[in-house]
Amino acid sequence: MTRWLGVLALALTLFTSWDASAAQTAVRRFALIIGNNAGEAGAAGSLRYADDDALAMHQLLREAGVESRLLARLDAATRGLHPEAVVDGAPTLAELKRNFAALVTNMQALRELGVPSELLLFYGGHGDVDRGEGYVVLEDGRLTRSLLFELLQSSPAINNHVFIDACKSYYVVFDRGPGGRRGPYSAASLAAIPAQLGNTGFVLSTSSDRESHEWERYQGGVLSHELRSALWGAADADLDGIITYAELGAFLTVANASIRNPMFRPEFTVHAPHRNLSQPLLSWNVSEAALEFGQGSWGHFYVETARGERLLDAHPSDGQPLRIWAPRERPLFVRQNDEAFETVISERAPTRVPPLSTPPQLASRGALGLALEWLFDKPFGAANVKDFREASAAPELLAATQVDHARQRDDLPLVAGTVALAAGAVGLTLNGIALGLSLGAHDESQLDIQHRNARIKALNYSSVPFYGVAALAGATWAWATWLRTPGLTVTPLAGGPGHAGAMLDWSGQF
User: Fold this and answer.
1) Which of 82, 107, 185, 289 is the most buried (most CB within 10 A)?
2) Nearest CA-CA partner of 166 in 217, 214, 100
């Protein structure tokens, strides 16, 4: 008996030691969240919901146990909804550098103790390009690609995750293509990312609306809302409490797939650290899940707070169970997107959501609103994650073909414009020669005059086809420059299964 008690004591000691070691090496996550409604001085327009997006992301990450800092200037409406909200500073370069340095110090201290850390950086606001370099706007200056990369290279985190919801956010990470045109996302594009940032993932969004990337229904950016929906658990297809790049990429693809007009369809770029789509973005404690949706046919539903804030949207495939982590506040309302039924969640304990049963009323308006009604139209499940992985691991040849195809589309305005100018020049030259002949007639015989008139007539007739070509090419140039509907392409990056990246690319005028 004494022998067995000794073995049991040793086993308990080893288990306790292993458990403490595992807890010590668990990844700690830190976040810097920035929201800025204001644009640059002299620029037209400002955003309404960038501060709301930042606050919502900050609250989500804190619910997930992330040490998050918020840089935003909350407007009166946001403060009215969240009087308890506390910000860590204004959305300025000075505050960005100060808070980033503080997070670096914390992560460095953990690394010296053998505890790994990860950094999440979110920006919501305005973006643009200047001399080929993308940037996002802060109150006192610009966060350029160069400065962003400099900050990230100083991060001691094992992985960095960067989320940017702003116009032209693509250029904050990747270069423009030849001649100042945007190039498709491909293996060559990654040369813009320093080798030291191989551990950095990027989720970049641009608005489906060229003038704004916000939707009043969501009271925020469309891509920001979709990102939060995914991180709350709507993208967790395997129910393991971990949201990976593969799950996020598949979720975004499916959520936007039913919008037929590419001008309204949101675009995004998902590039995983080390091109490993299995890399987690966020993890939750499975035992603390708030809302459990069993196997069934739920359709497109959303979760809303008592303040009327839309937390997330989801559309699980038939038979796909779902686990949603939600804030502790109650009540919460789970509503079908067609506003036919709802269920009120009052308990703070993990809850198995019953069938939806009571109808609320909402309204939508506007062409963009009608188009965005198609968001989350398609159901999402584990099969979509598998499809996304397979598409992302396609051969290099497919990527090269798509690159060539995109380059041909981008060259169309240049080719059409050149043809229009050349054909018009030939037509004008022929008319000029005819005019010279006409002005050069002096004391000629009737026969010479007839021959000269015949040549003038022939030259003028010969110019007509060239003017026709010039007009057709000019019309093509105008269509390709101003009226062409952008094309939607998915450009995969080659690699082994689970080790690739892909982009849903809205190429064209923006």
Assistant:
1) 185
2) 214
